[in-house]
Amino acid sequence: MWPLSIIYGLITGLRNFLYDSGVLKSHEFRLPVICVGNITIGGTGKTPHCAYLLDLLKDRFKVALLSRGYRRKTQGFAMAGPGSGPKDIGDEPAELFDRFRDVTIAVDSNRVRGIQNMLQVKPDLEVIILDDGFQHRRVTPGLSILLTDYSRLMIHDYLLPYGELRESLGNISRADIILVTKCPPDLSPIQRRIVVKDMKKAAYQNLYFTTYKYGKPLPVFRNIRYPAENENSLEPDKIAGVLVLTGIANPAPLNEYVETMFHETRKLNYPDHHMFTEDDINRIIAETGKLPEGRRLVLTTAKDAVRLRETEEKIPEELKKLLYYIPVQVDFLNDDKEEFNRLITEYVRKNKRNNRIS
Questions:
Q1: Under CATH, which architecture does the 218-326 domain have?
Q2: How far apart are the C-alpha atoms of 296 and 320, rounded to whole Å?
Q3: Which single residue of 59, 62, 234, 266 could bond 126 by disulfide (Cβ 3.0 to 4.6 Å)?
Q4: CA dihedral 138, 24, 74, 324 (to 10 degrees)
Q5: Distance CA 335, CA 279 (A)
Q6: Phi-psi category of residue 125: left, alpha or beta, with phi > 0 → left and psi -120 to 50 → alpha
Q7: Is 239 helix (H, G, I), strand (E, B) or coil?
Q8: Regarding beta strands 78-79 and 104-107, do their DSSP bridges make them parallel or antiparallel, or are they unpaired?
Q9: Would strands 296-301 and 323-326 be described as parallel, antiparallel, or unpaired?
Q10: Into which CATH architecture does domain 2-9+22-214+331-351 fall?
Q11: pLDDT tens per residue, the chain (358 residues)?
Q12: Of 135, 129, 115, 212, nearest to 175 (Cα)?
């Protein structure tokens, strides 16, 4: 695999050089554009961190989010609206739109065209968040946030296909903020200092540590009557067994959390962005049947929930009553939340204007 990684590195390195030298043009917009991305494949937590930014900015500024819309069935530019699902806009934008109905969310693999179309539809926008836009260099962001998973730091990785790096580690320099994500909540000061030392961040870069906070399970389907719907019905001591159902890149943090909360658990993991089929539903039913007798749950993620709703007609009513998802929120370690929030809001406040494209 090493020879292929060398070739891959030469190709991506040449591409970045052409952008850095101005041979390939990058488009700059006259409004704040915040890029959230990574240089590794797999889940670093982009969607929960985009949700954090939307939550931070939505009541202060007219904010929008533009994503590629990975694995959707549509082409070109599309705006999220009533009835939009994973097939229309992709599962991650659908998950965000399900939570932020009053925020402008759109998809386009061509980010320049996507922003231009968004500004035509919503000319009063004050800030745009680019989801997974770090490698999309045709747009010059005003602020770049780079994510790396604590359990597999990008500095210890190698270029594709030998490793999981999309581009060389030297490109970390393009980031203004580095977020070490999915950290243990009890990460010690010594462990933090080791990561900071290993990351070798530049003086102009800010580095923060984030973790996940899991909320109370919520019904996947809102239009059916769930059994024993009261505050105590989902308490761990009331549950005989749990099936953890995931179709995400890195289910380990959720699996570990559920195992700490419930005594009897089983796991059923599918690939990231997996669209559930009738055969999958039958397998879920079979795996659920292996749980101990009593109150059973099938716990999944918010991202999987939007895809399960796409196959609602294939899911028996009895299984629907067992399906819940666990909401996830980003939290900061080491009291860095206020500093991060201030940095983001100050950047938007100082750079927002009545927007025309440059």
A1: 3-Layer(aba) Sandwich (3.40)
A2: 12
A3: 62
A4: -40
A5: 46
A6: beta
A7: coil
A8: antiparallel
A9: parallel
A10: 3-Layer(aba) Sandwich (3.40)
A11: 889 999 999 999 999 999 999 999 999 999 999 999 999 998 899 999 999 999 999 999 999 999 999 999 999 999 999 999 999 999 999 999 999 999 999 999 999 999 999 999 999 999 999 999 999 999 999 999 999 999 999 999 999 999 999 999 999 999 999 999 999 999 999 999 999 999 999 999 999 999 999 999 999 998 877 665 555 578 888 899 999 999 999 999 999 999 999 999 999 999 999 999 999 999 999 999 999 999 999 999 999 999 999 999 999 999 999 999 999 999 999 889 999 999 999 999 999 875 444 4
A12: 135
* Per-residue CA distances from 159 to 8, 14, 15, 71 (Å): 7, 15, 15, 24
Q: Cα(57)–Cα(60) distance, rounded to whole angstroms?
A: 5
Helical (H) or strand (E) element with 202: none
